[in-house]
Amino acid sequence: MAVALAMTREERPYNGRITSFVVLSCMVAAMGGLIFGYDIGISGGVTSMEPFLRKFFPEVYNKMKEDTEISNYCKFDSQLLTSFTSSLYVAGLVTSFFASSVTRYFGRKPSIIAGGAAFLSGSALNGAASNLFMLIFGRVLLGVGVGFANQSVPLYLSEMAPPQYRGAISNGFQLCVGIGVLSANYINFGTEKIEGGWGWRISLAMAAVPASILTVGAFFLPETPNSLIQRHKDHQKAKAMLQRIRGTTDVQAEFNDLTKASSVSIKHPFKNIIQRKYRPQLVMAIAIPFFQQVTGINVISFYAPILFRTIGLSESLSLIMSALIAGVVGTAATFISMIIVDKLGRRVMFIFGGVQMLLSQIVIGCVMAAELGDQGSMSKVYAYLVLTMICIYVAGFAWSWGPLGWLVPSEIFSLEIRSAGQSIVVAVNFLFTFVIAQTFLAMLCHFKSGIFFFFGGWVAVMTAFVYFLLPETKNKPIELMDRVWEDHWFWKRTAGESDKNSEHQVA
Fold it and tell me: Which residue ranges does the record assign to the Major facilitator superfamily (MFS) profile domain (predicted)?
């Protein structure tokens, strides 16, 4: 009996390759990252445009223009202004739990369609906004769209990808986020120059382009074999789909593991995910998205143009620098991550990126503390040094905590708790995105340059967390991911408990 148990625990290599069918499907699904990235980039740029501030946030505009004694760090401190950005994340947080049920009971494809349609509606409303209510309500619809997309797209990519290429394919989500940020920043740079002060409407309305691609394209997406097995008793349809996406008829080993994982599917995943045997996955579902948000990336992503104006750059130059740094550097680094993630592994990239971010944040904080006072501006030499360090920081995030913050949670859950686990990941991500977005400008005003040391401290903590508590998941089939936790020096005490009990019962 012991030999039989040992044989069932052997990892069998799966057959299959990357097919054009998988590539095209994942490219369409990854557009969910594009709408997320576009919104991140567009909101920061629009909130730095003077016509937009004058129309919707006149108090902020007047304080920026007329109050000559206000600190450089406090010019944009407005809870109403941050509500414009953060309202999306409150809506996304609530939506993610509804999206879990849709994803579980109806499939990944309907969730992606719902996300694209809601985002499309929100972009239309924002582009036509004539008052603050329309503006915020449009943001809420955008949040519903992002909530559905961020819950379903990472799962879709992980389940469609062959295990040996899962990191590269799943990181396509973050690559699209980077492309979205890049596109948004260049659009902001162009629309800011439109005479008449209505360029911000184009910036907001252009979100309809990626949303339309996602919504229409999603109708032609195939459902994942995992979802088909989970929702239908007839498994032959799932096997046929698995053969199609793997490009071979010899998929029996992978199919057997899929059906075995589905056989323990449960009716109440949110209730069961708090069980002791799922504790490692639950901890990661909370810790990884939390740490992703307290890296300080929102300082750059949301408010880069504002931050650059703080150090003395003009409105136009602030927008173009945001495009170059957050867009070009971030996208290039994410592409590098796609190439090397399945070779180096997740842990190495997490740790290396963490060290890189920490060092750059320390330098930025020190320079701004020494050279930027409450009034006036920084010399060009030090301003460019800060910009260089921001480039290094963005690159570090873009090949570590950016893509891996979505990749690792999407691949660690058993099928029976996968939709619930991903919903928790998205909810925690949105919760702390909201907290950071809502408090950042006030923190910048009160902490001043110390804000970089604040986030740098968190980067040190999360790097240590990965070193000690995160096992390596590269090349591991997601259907067999429970073995990763059972072999870990710390988590094996809880993760292996159910297997030990079942072995005793068999004996």
Answer: 25-474
How far from each other are the two terminal CA atoms of the chain, in whole angstroms?
A: 8
The per-residue DSSP string of 14-40 comes to: PP----HHHHHHHHHHTHHHHHHHHHH
Token duo for residue 58: 């006149």
Distance, in Å, from the CA atom of 431 to the CA atom of 426, rounded to the nearest integer, reads 8
Q: pLDDT digits over 148-175, tens only?
A: 998 899 889 988 988 888 888 888 888 8
Task: Report residues of the chain scoring pLDDT below 70.
Answer: 1-13, 63-79, 263-268, 298-327, 372-378, 496-507
Environment class of residue 155 by beta-carbon count within 10 Å: exposed (0-12), middle (13-18) or buried (19+)? buried
One-letter amino acid at 91 equals A
Helices 208-218 & 108-127, crossing angle to 10 degrees? Answer: 150
Q: What is the pLDDT of residue 505?
A: 39
Residue 450 tokens read as 């110390």
Residue 188 in 3-state DSSP? helix
Q: What ranges in 323-417 are assigned the alpha helix state H?
A: 330-344, 346-371, 380-398, 401-411
Q: What distance in Å separates the CA atoms of residue 344 and residue 399, rounded to the nearest whole number?
A: 12
Topology of domain 20-223+266-497, per CATH?
Growth Hormone; Chain: A; (1.20.1250)
Four-point Cα dihedral 453, 458, 460, 464, nearest 10: 170
The per-residue DSSP string of 66-87 comes to H-TTS-GGGTT--HHHHHHHHH
User: For residue 247, what are the CA distances in angstroms to 239, 242, 251, 363?
Assistant: 12, 8, 9, 50
Q: What pLDDT was estimated at residue 110?
A: 93
Instruction: In whole angstroms, give the CA distance from residue 15 to residue 17.
Output: 7
Contacts of 299 (CB under 8 A, 6+ apart): 307, 440, 451, 452, 455
d(CA 21, CA 140): 34
Interatomic CA distance for residues 64 and 151, integer angstroms: 38
- Domain-by-domain residue ranges, the chain? 20-223+266-497
For tokens 């980067």, the residue is 459
Task: State the pTM of this model.
Answer: 0.79
150 with 141: CB under 8 angstroms? no
Query: Alpha carbon 464 to chain centroid distance?
Result: 21
Max Cα-Cα span within the chain: 81
- What's 223's DSSP letter? P
Q: HSE on the CB side for 449, CA within 13 Å?
A: 17
Element (H, E) at 209: helix 208-218
Question: How far is it, in rounded angstroms, from Cα 256 to Cα 242?
Answer: 11
In this predicted model, what pLDDT tens digit does every residue of 111-161 receive, in sequence order?
Answer: 999 999 999 999 999 999 888 889 889 999 999 999 999 889 988 998 898
Find the length of the chain: 507
Q: Which residues touch 147 (CB under 8 Å, ≥6 apart)?
A: 91, 92, 93, 94, 95, 96, 98, 99, 115, 426, 430
